[in-house]
Design brief:
With 243 residues, the protein is mainly α. Helices cover 54% and strands 0% of the residues. The chain has a single domain, classed as Penicillin binding protein transpeptidase fold. The longest helix is centred in the first third of the chain and has 20 residues.
Length: 243
């Protein structure tokens, strides 16, 4: 004979006990922090975003110089050169370049030796929401966030943000406008191909590399980027489409 009371009693007995309240509060707080960038990213279609490094420098009283300039006020050769130096398939991938990542992993002996494989979109994700340095945790957070940013923001806007939050000098110069004025005494809209290449060559290490006083290595790298830009004028084709 069917006995509902016993059945419901069995269900009560099988219920998984809830976690203690402090643990649940911490878990919800961590989840909220992890999801916050996904909520904020769509709003970055507009405004002048700042990076976590800029925030840290402001909070610690260090110098920050940044003049946000739209892509229309940047010499076209500069975005093209940056794409070809940092992320040649920028217009073709969806935020993460799986082919480049596979090649980088194959060439690296361990995680500390990993070079390359980080797209411009991943760098935007890192600079806006995460922290510098290399770690598995940061990469694990960066990958899905880069895919989301590519989904909710046009390519043109992603690159515009990148050019305005990248570090371009040793004393808190952020954004291509501050970097160009520091190195060449001119706005970003007036840079020539070789100057654009020098600025692009600075990006991996703006503390030690100086576009205004380039050493032999930086000049050789800039010459390579000039040739790349001349040989691939359509690498920035996605920037010319309507957002």
């Amino acid at each position: 004979m069917f006995r509902p009371a016993k059945r419901y009693g069995l269900i009560r007995d099988l219920r998984v006990p809830l976690l203690p309240r402090p643990v649940r509060i911490v878990a919800f707080a961590v989840l909220a922090v992890l999801l916050l960038p996904y909520a904020i990213a769509p709003f970055y279609r507009f405004g002048e975003p700042i990076s976590t490094v800029m925030l840290w420098r402001w909070a610690t009283g260090q110098r920050v110089q940044r003049d946000f300039v739209p892509l229309a006020r940047i010499a076209p050769v500069l975005p093209l050169t940056v794409i070809l130096s940092e992320d040649g398939r920028f217009c073709g991938h969806r935020g993460v370049d799986l082919q480049e990542l596979k090649e980088a992993l194959a060439d690296a002996e361990d995680f500390d030796d990993l070079r390359g494989g980080s797209t411009i979109t991943q760098q935007v994700a890192k600079n806006l929401f995460l922290w510098p340095g290399r770690s598995f945790v940061r990469k694990a957070l960066e990958f899905p966030l880069a895919l989301w940013i590519d989904l909710v923001l046009p390519k043109r806007r992603v690159l515009e943000i990148y050019l305005n939050i990248a570090e371009w000098g040793p004393r808190g110069e952020f954004g291509v406008e501050a970097g160009s004025r520091r190195a060449f005494g001119k706005p970003a809209k007036d840079v020539r191909p070789h100057e654009a290449a020098l600025l692009a060559a600075m990006l991996p290490n703006p503390i030690r590399r100086d576009a205004g006083k380039p050493g032999p290595g930086l000049r050789r790298l800039a010459a390579l980027y000039v040739r790349r830009a001349a040989g691939a004028p359509n690498a920035d084709s996605c920037l010319r489409r309507a957002p």
